[in-house]
Amino acid sequence: MDSKHTRLPSFEAHASRLASTHLRQLLADEARGDRLRRRVGPILLDLSRQKLDTAALDAVGEYIESTHWQAARDAMFSGEHINTSEDRAVLHTALRSGASRHPVAPADVRKEVEATLQRMEKIVGAVHRGEGETVGLIPQVTDVVNIGIGGSDLGPRLAVHALEQFHVKGIRSHFLTNVDGHAAYNLMNQLDPRHTLVILVSKTFTTQETLLNGGVFRDWILRAHDGDERAASKHFLAVSSNVEAAEKWGVPAAQVLPMWDFVGGRYSLWSAVGAAIAFSVGMDNFRQMLAGAAEVDDHFRSAPWQENGPVLLAIAELWNRNVLKRTSRAVVPYVDSLVDLPSYLQQLEMESLGKHVHPDGGIVEDSTVPVVWGSIGTNAQHAYFQALHQGTDIVPLEFIGIVKPAHPLVKNHAALLSNLLAQAAALALGKTFDEALAEAKSGTDEQRRALAEQRTFEGDRPSTVLMLDSLTPYSLGALIALYEHKVFLLGHLWRINAFDQWGVELGKAIASQILPSLDANPDALTQFDSATRALIKAIQSRK
Ligand code: F6P
After folding, report:
1. Which residues are catalytic?
2. How confident is the model at residue 543 (pLDDT cuts 50, 70, 90)?
3. In this entry, which stretches build a coiled coil (predicted)?
4. 275 and 178 in one domain?
5. pLDDT of 74 strictly over 70
6. Is 381 among the domain residues?
7. Residues forming beta bridges with residue 240, ordered by sequence position
């Protein structure tokens, strides 16, 4: 990243030409469609419903080429300290480099990564065989509870839920995240402490939510062992880059798996942070997920920009955000088991790219990350799609579908897919006033026209379709890596550091000041603002 605060080009001529070009016209150009539909391993990426013609596409692509993005990409893959505010390398790609055709991560890193995968393999295999005691754990595990938050939760949660058809029989997975006691309490009520294995996942091992919930589970398991700490410790694994703190907390050294400073939390599901995934689907499937990601890594490093999936996704985002000024993007998977994808992407994209300062302290003058949100289709169609079709704001959408489902209910899947295709088409094509008027059969002319106005869809609303052949560990790995590299490239183009997250610190600091004050006399809490004092008072009065 250089320190020049060059703004993005405005692409004005292209933007004004396209302002009067409806997506209906753009879609009539089949050669353009072919350029915007690309295969990336098991994923078909269809950007043909983005408001770009080939001239605009080339202009943005050529601009991206001029930024030397390949050098920035290679710096990341080879372990340069591109996370400058923390002086760290960014090497999540090293975690899957064992499956890469051209691994370039430093050899010592690769060695350490593989050694950790082998430790995971040993532990997971022993638990699956009902021989946990051979690795220092309880012999029979029925339930695995992942306690972690943010990157220590969202990735494992996404993959475990997405890969439900690959679940190993006899092991149930649970995710405890929030500090809201209802979650821990309800979970403990469902589980048998004697057969529960807890994975405490925290890169820093200082996160309030995780340590508090870990303590709640430790007390619960201790009670089941009449206070025998040694017996209770066999129920715990920890994953952290702060191995010392994990051991101090009470997890024996042999049960602490490492994580490294060169992997950001939101990029960490490929490491031992993904232990819950491995327990849930087995180590072979976990390695398949790494292999899917490695295929996209190789693709990102070798495909020319015109065919490069992450580059094309970044072009669409840049166009929507910086040229068309769209403020949000909706992610709508037409796959129930991808229910966690929108929240996963919220962290990946918004924590990475939610910045307005360059690494050298200068203010970013271009808009950065849009709000990322969404939920499962078709359910979403019956909730907020009205606003997406006819609301005043235009929200670019991302549809995710799968060709082959993991069930034999052919009619269900056909209905699901046809809805996905129909929504993308309806948003792009719309319905003209004349078409709506022709449908309005009764009433006066004035009434028919008023109704037709309300039933007109202007269309011209952009979307992308990502179609996976099927949802497997391999294709899931590929999908996530595709997004990761899009994020990397946008960070490069916006000239921000996509790998730190200083913005989450202030709230944490204030919460730690408020916590001991919740029972204090609010009038004496002069360190807080008047609104905080009033709320503490109100809470106290209703206890
Ligand atoms: O507060 C944000 C954050 O630091 C995320 O970046 C991270 O994924 C999450 O908290 C959890 O952190 P840890 O793994 O250190 O508990």
Report:
1. 351, 382, 508
2. confident
3. none
4. yes
5. yes
6. yes
7. 258
